[in-house]
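Intended use. Records like the one below are meant for learning the mapping from a protein sequence to its folded structure. Do not use them to infer anything beyond what is encoded.
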Amino acid sequence: MKLTEVIKNAKKPLFSFEILPPLKGESINHLFDAIEPLIEFNPAFIDVTYHREEYIYKNHPNGLLQRYSTRKRPGTVGICAAIINKYKIEAVPHLICGGFSKEETEDALIDLDYLGVENVLVLRGDAIKSEGSFVPEPNGHNYAIDLLHHVVNLNQGHYWGQEKPDNTGTNFCIGIAGYPEKHFEAPNFKKDIYYLKQKVDAGANYIVTQMFFDNQKYFDFVKTCREEGINVPIIPGLKPLTTKKQLSILPSIFHIDLPSDLVDAVEKCKTNQEVAQVGVEWAIQQSKELLNFGVPCLHYYSMSKSEAVKKIAQGVF
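Structure written out for the chain above:
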């Protein structure tokens, strides 16, 4: 079922979470072990990320450098099929621009359509660390809105390199990312909202936000979106802190601010176990406040580790 329909038909706010595919060579059972503890909370959907491969260069015996692929996480399409088959829960694959040509993107979408996957989250994706800035594949999409247009065209029966007349369209519900604290490449918040509205006007059906730790930033983001005519569901994304290192890692990677009260509480912790407890308590308070605000769903970034998310769900749902 399309997520917009799930949200519309829900009698209470929904629970969902995101998982990472196992690294190449790991068993999918590791993933099921992370999902199982959260099934009791009746997740409305499970997001499955896609991570483009990174590269390292090693000296070859002939004196040349040889490129090796590393940290590859394949399996997003197969994992979605497995989740739907095993748990009868909607699975939402991430689609990214990086690492795919337009033809490869379309092939993946066709596979998803055949498997009965009805929801996708379209993203540009991150740059390869060695490149510094995002570089698309040859004949690939440059921006998330280009990928969005591709999915919309497929829904309308327009396939790459084919004339339309009798083509059967796909039926994807399309999600996009939103940034309560602004995407780091946008020159300002106003321009970031402008780009977001372009995507909604182009056919995006719902928004899932980047993680945030200050609910006021989400409230302000939603208010601005509504004032600008963005009326699709806006699902807040939350992540519990679990280690002290995340005080510096998360702002660096995700370009977010951490509230002073949260930072002070974490800095007082002597162990990561204490940090994890602070993170759970903070996320529970965030969740309850967001539910009072009237959010349609609470979405948690689990990183395929269920312990903290389970404790939060026990305190909220």
